[in-house]
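Q: How do we represent a protein-ligand complex in a form that can be generated cell by cell?
A: Start from the inputs.
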Amino acid sequence: MSPKPAPTGRDRLRIAIQKNGRLSEPARALLGSCGLSWRESPDKLFCYGDNAPVDLLLVRDDDIPGLIDSGLCDLGIVGRNVLVEQSSERDESGTPANFRELRALGFGGCRLSLAVPNDWDWQGAAQLQGKRIATSYPALTRAWLREQGVAADVVVLNGSVEIAPRLGQADVVCDLVSSGATLVANQLKPVCDLLQSEAVLAGPVAELDPQLAETAQMLLRRIDGVLRIRDSKLLMFQAPRDAVADVLRLLPDAEPPTSYSVDGGELLAMQALCHGVVTWQRLEELKRAGARGLMVLPVERMLA
Ligand SMILES: Nc1ncnc2c1ncn2[C@@H]1O[C@H](COP(=O)(O)OP(=O)(O)OP(=O)(O)O)[C@@H](O)[C@H]1O
Ligand SMILES: O=P(O)(O)OC[C@H]1O[C@H](OP(=O)(O)OP(=O)(O)O)[C@H](O)[C@@H]1O
Ligand SMILES: [Mg+2]
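Then emit the C-alpha cells for the protein with PRP bound:
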C-alpha cells in the first residue's frame, strides 16, 4: 500500500525537467509529443501550461528528486543515476525517499562504471581494498563497496573525475561512461558497471493528491503511447489463409495482428504493429512467404 498523499493545495500538475543539459531537449521533445505546450521565454524557470493543467519547472537535474520528495513538484525527468544516488544517500541516513522511478524513457543512456588505470591487471573488487575511488556518486559507490565487502576511501569530485588518478588524488574512478572516449583520453579502462542508466520519469512513492492524480494518469498514458510507437510502424498486407503462419513467423517483433477475410474467405487482410525496423529486405521475405499489397505506415499516436 502506498502512503496516503499530503494535500498540495494545487490543482495543476508540476513536472520538473533539466534547464540546460543533456536531458533538456529530449525531455521537452517527449512532453511535446504528448501534446503539451507552454508559454515560455528563454529566462523563465516556471512555464505555465497552455493546453493542459501541467506546468513545467526548469531546474538543475540534481534538484529534481528533492523537489518531488518535498511535494513542490509532482513528476520529473532525470537520469536514473541521479535518482539512485539520492535514494542511496537516503538509505545511508535512514530517511526513506519519497521519490521513485515510474518509467524508463529510452534516452540519455549511459552507465556508471568503475575504471582503473590501463596498466592495472584487474582481478576483481577485492583489489580495491584500501584504495581511493574518485566519484560524483559517493552513496552509490559506497553501497556497492559494502555489497562487495571491500573497505575503500571515496573521494568526492563534482566533475572531471577522470583526471583524479593522474593527479594522484585517487587510484581509480567511478563515473558515467557513454562513448568511453573520456576514459581512453585519460588512460583508464572500465572494469565493472555499477548501474545502467537512462532518463526516467520520476514521481512520488506516495499516491498523488486526488486533485492531480487524474492529470498525472493522463500524462502517463500519453507517455506510454509515445514510448510504445517510438520506432514502430503499422504493416498492412493481404495473405492467403494457408500462408499466414509463414508470414507471421517473419514478424516476431509485431503485436498480434488484426485480420478480416476478403475475397470469399480465402484471402485475409491483415495489419500488425511492428516494433522493429521494416526494411525492404524484410518486405521481400514477406512477399516470398505469400504476403501481397504490403504497405508500411507511420504511427502518429496511440492510446491503449
Ligand atoms: N556522457 C554521457 N552520455 C550520455 N548521457 C549522459 C552522459 N553523461 C551524463 N549523462 C546523463 O545525462 C544526465 C545529465 O547530464 P548533464 O551533464 O547535462 O548533467 P549536469 O551537468 O549534472 O547538469 P545540471 O546543470 O542540470 O546539474 C546525467 O545525469 C546522465 O543521466
Ligand atoms: O564516455 P564519454 O562519452 O566520454 O562520456 C563520459 C563523460 O561525460 C560526462 O562528463 P561531462 O561531459 O558531463 O562533464 P563533467 O566532467 O562536468 O561531468 C561524464 O562525467 C564523463 O566524464
Ligand atoms: Mg547536475
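The two ends are 26 Å apart (CA to CA). The mean pLDDT is 94.
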